[in-house]
Amino acid sequence: MRVALPISTVCTPGLALVLSPSMLFRSESLPWHVVFGIFVYVLAVATASLGFLEKLTFLENSGLDKYGSEAFLVNFTAIVTLLFGAFVILSVLSQPPPSADDYSYSAI
To answer: Where is the signal peptide (predicted)?
Structure first.
């Protein structure tokens, strides 16, 4: 699992290039493209959080205090990374603002 997640994060966009649809099917494949992009982003955030966990594990094995300042810094950075990833996903999945045509002026 430790090696499979980063490798899949790197190889998944390459797979998208190989399987990219032709010009005729681009409008139909747009929702799948968005879902695929969200999936790659979630994989990247998960890989980053596992990297922080691995760094903290190696630091604790080398004699770092469990509740030391370095451990709190790594944990805080991992939490900020996860929260940022969650807010990005929420902003992508939220409803877009209304188009400008709804509030534009029209002739009377």
So the answer is: none
